[in-house]
Amino acid sequence: MKKTMLFLDGDKRATLSIIRSIGKMNTYHILSAGKSKTDLCRFSKYCEKHYKYDDPEKSIISFIHSLKEIIKISKPDYIFPCSDISLFSIYTSSFYDEIKEKLIAPNKETYLLSFDKDKMQKITASCGVKIIEEASFNECEFPIVVKPRQSRTIIEDRMIYGFRKIVHNKKGLEKALFEVNQYDKKPLLQKMIKGKALVYLQPQKMANYLPHLLMNE
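User: That's the sequence. What structure does it adopt?
Assistant: Structure tokens below.
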């Protein structure tokens, strides 16, 4: 008998690619779920049924509640979160303990550790890999980069992520610190990496980026 696999993040192209790849094996009943009734994955020929859950970026509590109902109805053998948005929401909820045996996902502790920029910097440095130098508030050479220590955090039921400010003077630094201090009292201050980086997009076309923005990639 085929087992059932429920894919989350039905609006993502990456999820659709995974569904296609696994669907071709014809070994699982495939279900999908996402923020909309018209998500991409709903229209895959391999998807037997699609469910709508509440947007985790708007309310993690509502997302978890709606996901519980979907799982109760669909009774999947496996649950496959296909983005950080859904997986982070699950890992930071008590609901994780109820479904952890069904999750297709990386180790929880390792996954959450990867969002701690400060700890990752130290681990990286201990492996002999060059890292971005830290800047000092009192003795800083502009421009510098201001980042929260956590890539993702939860404030009042909402996920906060993506904050990164490149500042060019003391006034800009004070403003950036005021913003980030709303949820991180000890943000990272890093020296700006000089130079430029090129990213290959397609034949005869290159994209020009500041290398600091590409460090994670």
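The domain at 3-113 is CATH 3.40.50.20 (Rossmann fold).
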